[in-house]
Design brief:
The complex is a heterodimer of chains A (142) and B (111). With 142 residues, chain A is α+β, with helices and mostly antiparallel strands. Chain A is built from 5 helices and 5 strands; from the N terminus they run E-H-H-E-E-H-H-H-E-E. A 5-stranded antiparallel beta sheet of chain A has the order 1-2-3-5-4, with helices on one face. Chain A is globular. Chain B is of the alpha/beta class and 111 residues long. In chain B, helix 2 packs parallel to helix 3 (56-64) and helix 3 runs parallel beside helix 4. Chain B has a 5-stranded mixed beta sheet, with helices on both faces. Classes of the chains: A alpha+beta (142), B alpha/beta (111). Chain A binds chain B through residues 16-17, 19-21, 23-24, 27, 37, 41, 44-45, 48-49, 52, 104-106, 108-111, 114, 117-118, and chain B through 33-40, 44, 52, 54-57, 59-60, 62-64, 80, 84.
């Protein structure tokens, strides 16, 4: 696999029942390509969190995944409300998810912290009223 | 130990994929109902003990590669959860026991 494999997905906004499908597809692809289980797990967890965030907060968005032997780069773009206070949003346990969502077991306030923990690099570009772009890099080599 | 043997020992009822249980090995368990915690704490082949019954538990268990989902306190999965679990080949089983009782028994069995 000398070249970069590029995958593109659209996440629909209000459908909790399908959340996690994109992460599952990417996970399968990475397993088929023979990536180490730890790498696949890191991608699956951080991507699932991002996918859920898009559904809960941003009415969906797009996910682009670039896969190369060295690293996996995931770029998630939405046109949601943006994050007013990133520092707060990064605190474990801080959540703005509403009651309905919490009843489903979401809204633990671990979304962004998990993304940070399970990726090797995370960049957030956000503007209130415009949307958020999260870029995650997961290194594939030891 | 297989999920099938565990089901027998703990007197659990299968909601999905009973046919896969005899081949499915389980080791270790995680107890929790918040999906983000489960996602990061459930390890490969763990039994995930929860009272959460909505369809999202299937995505989390599948991504974390849990061996099965064990519902305690008499909780029953939603119809959509059952459909999705069958699709994804995720075993869901459960019983009236509490999470503590389930974990104690699993511990006695050396899981």
């Amino acid at each position: 696999m000398a070249e970069v494999m590029k995958l593109h997905y659209t996440v629909s906004g209000d459908d909790f029942t399908r959340a996690g499908e994109t992460s599952s597809k990417v996970k399968k692809t990475l397993n088929q390509l023979g990536f180490r289980p730890e790498v696949v797990r890191k991608v699956a967890i951080s991507m699932y969190e991002a996918e859920i965030n898009m559904v809960i907060h941003a009415n969906g968005g797009t996910i682009d995944v670039d896969i190369s032997p060295e690293e996996i780069i995931i770029v998630m773009q939405d046109t949601g409300p943006g994050i007013p206070d990133i520092e707060k949003a990064m605190q474990e346990g801080y959540s703005t998810a509403d009651h309905n969502v919490r009843e489903l077991g979401f809204g633990a306030g671990m979304g962004l912290p998990n993304m940070k923990r399970y990726s090797d690099d995370m960049q957030i570009d956000t503007e209130v009223g415009k949307g958020t772009c999260v870029k995650l890099v997961i290194k594939a080599k030891e | 130990m297989t999920v099938s043997e565990i089901a027998k020992e703990l007197n659990l009822k299968f909601f999905t994929c009973e046919d896969l249980a005899a081949q499915k090995e389980a080791k270790g368990c995680y107890i929790g109902d918040l999906l983000s915690f489960a996602m990061s704490k459930v390890e490969m082949n763990n039994i995930w003990i929860t009272i959460q019954t909505n369809v999202n538990i299937v995505a989390v268990a599948t991504l974390a590669e849990a061996s099965c989902i064990l519902l305690t306190d008499g909780c029953v999965p939603d119809k959509l959860t059952i459909e999705r679990a069958e699709e994804q080949e995720m075993i869901i089983l459960g019983g009236d026991l509490t999470a503590y009782e389930a974990a104690s028994k699993l511990s006695q069995l050396g899981i």
